[in-house]
Specification:
There is one protein chain. The model has no long low-confidence stretch (mean pLDDT 89). The chain contains one helix and 13 strands. The protein starts with a strand and ends with a helix. A hairpin with a 6-residue loop joins strand 5 and strand 6. It is elongated, with a radius of gyration of 25 Å. The longest helix has 15 residues. Helices cover 7% and strands 66% of the residues. It is mainly beta. The chain has one domain.
Length: 213
């Protein structure tokens, strides 16, 4: 369930609530006799989340656009099986800021800088650490804007490292998932041929329709 309010094109507010029964998560099960651990998927989570998402879009100058959003939410989770933590609730937040820049008067060189920050909070029955991620891109138009050269840099600081802590079989478990998401990508696009005159084409299509009717 979600309610949205927009003030022009600059301010968007969302209030939301979600209820999930039988959500999925991996569980560590311990055999008391053999002390062998098994990690298996199970549907055992009941979660209720209520939150507020606020987005602000501004243009301080004609060459600089800013898109900023904040998502603050409260999570309440219970478990259906005895091996895990039975209850966990708490606040979490995510902040995202993106800046788009035009770097020359001809408007052929563009840059984007994006930063995402996740606060320490709760994720179902896990407690997560804080983390951030910085991305950037540059785009250059040349040859009468027929050729586009782009560079993209993902997780520049290698800082998107989140640690999750939970309890299973009364044992504290901590784990970190990082898939080495720091990379860069080079792109080159060239548009062959001439641009279509869509106005003339639309007018001809309308004439054909009038002739048929």
């Amino acid at each position: 369930m979600e309610f949205e309010y927009a003030l022009g094109d600059n301010l968007i507010t969302n209030i939301y609530f979600s209820y999930t029964d039988d959500d999925f998560e991996q569980v560590t099960l311990l055999d008391a006799e053999t002390t062998i651990q098994q990690i298996i998927p199970k549907n055992f989570i009941i979660n209720r989340t209520i939150g507020l998402n606020q987005t602000v879009i501004v243009s301080p100058t004609d060459w600089w656009d800013i898109n900023a959003s904040a998502d603050v939410y409260y999570s309440n989770t219970t478990a259906k099986i005895p091996q895990t933590l039975q209850f966990l609730s708490g606040w979490s937040a995510e902040f995202d800021v993106s800046c788009d820049l035009i770097l020359n008067k001809r408007k052929t060189v563009f840059a984007t800088l994006n930063y995402l920050y996740i606060t320490r909070g709760v994720d179902n029955l896990d407690v997560n650490s804080s983390a951030g991620q910085l991305n950037s891109s540059i785009k250059w138009l040349s040859l009468n804007k027929k050729m586009i050269v782009s560079l993209y840099f993902n997780d520049i600081l290698r800082s998107n490292l989140i640690t999750y802590t939970t309890f299973s079989n009364n044992i504290k478990n901590s784990f970190r998932n990082y898939y080495d998401e720091r990379f860069f990508r080079i792109g080159l696009v060239y548009n062959f041929g001439k641009k279509l005159n869509t106005e003339n084409r639309d007018g001809k299509n309308q004439e054909d329709q009038d002739r048929v009717n």
